[in-house]
Write a structure and sequence with these properties.
With about 450 residues, the chain is α+β, with helices and mostly antiparallel strands. The chain contains 18 helices and 11 strands. It folds into 2 domains: about 230 residues, Cytochrome Bc1 Complex, Chain A, domain 1, CATH 3.30.830.10; about 190 residues, 2-Layer Sandwich (Cytochrome Bc1 Complex, Chain A, domain 1), CATH 3.30.830.10.
Amino acid sequence: MNRFLRKNITNFLVGVNVFILLTLFLTPNSRADVMEKTLDNGLNVILKKDTRAPVVTSHIWYKIGSADEISGKTGLSHALEHMMFKGTKKYPGGVFSQAISKLGGKENAFTSKDYTAYYQTLPSQYLEEALKFESDRMNNLVISKSDFLKEIEVIKEERRLRTDDQPEGIAYEQLYASAYNNSSYHDPIIGWMEDLNSMTEIDISNWYKNWYAPNNATVVIVGDINFEKTMDLIKKYYGSKEKVKIKNRIIRDEPPQFGEKEISIQIKGKPSYIIMGYKVPSLNTKDVDPLDCYALSVLSGILSSGQNSRLQKILVREKKVASYADSGYSMFSRNDPLFLIDINPIVGEKIDKIQSELQKIIDDLKKNLVKKSELDRIKAQVLASEVYQRDSIDYQARILGMIKTSIGDISLIEKYTENINKVTASQVREVAKKYLVFKSKTIVTVNDEK
């Protein structure tokens, strides 16, 4: 996974990495191994059978992330994720975590711009234990002032370590804050420090009551399961949960951009860094041909997938101006995302020179058709990674949860390979010409302070 994405786990599943994960489902009989239902209280349920090992992963995805927050109240979704581990009246403190560990399992959670998810992976015979604990904290979480005051300091320190003290983290955050004037993607997932300083336990409690409900959630279970027995367990632990009236989500339309935005950051004693983003559509974007999104994914692969990709071959090996170069794109975003490119320059190389070489690569993609051999190589990588990645039931659950929560239609998984294979060299050239343009571009550079 790209380095700027590893540090921002919520942009998880971008670019050609989505190719890899989607191949988990690209077998002729894969659909027969998936069950999808919605309970009377609105809870979405997706079950996928994988009996190669006596293990199961149990996820719950809430359709709430930083994109649902407003200015002055940023960081709520991520802070609530932290507080969800503080316990309920029935299972206080670390009882949940300790129980999963004793059963030989592991658990964790992650927050993104589009969703918040919690999961446990453990021996399949203990699935009921995971459901018992997870369902309890859907509506019984205890949010005390003392716990909050301790945890908010942990979150502030996390922000310092991952963003404020990291040039790449600062650049990534500034890229989104500068690229988007009004879109909900403007604000960082962890929140601005000023908002963390003013946040209260009441803010967290209200956020919890507004969004954590069965009719705003999807349970995803993958592994060694029996569909009927598993569905009975889900009904047992979630079926009595009451719906809540979900607040209307605030729609923050992004105004037109009139030209390239360029931000220069000076940090003493730190290596140079370049990150840029072009505003592009996702599969949720209205009045956009969905094939544009598949072509953008292929374009990202051409730029950065493998040692023979354009960025690696030209910037790293031939021109020797960069030690690292990557790209990323997520077609499954709820709102219009950024097509990302980031570069670590070789020490001493001028950033202007690197930008010039990068622009030549982009201009070539706009002007000339990608050769069939190069296009076929990228498409082949979709299938080449299948055997390796199919070992992870967690990734299988993640792709199902992400697509259901962000797009709403897991049948896209079945169509993925077909649509990728439809992409032509002409379409790659057209999306490069249409979307990789100056009026939708924002670039952030980090330079050593003079």
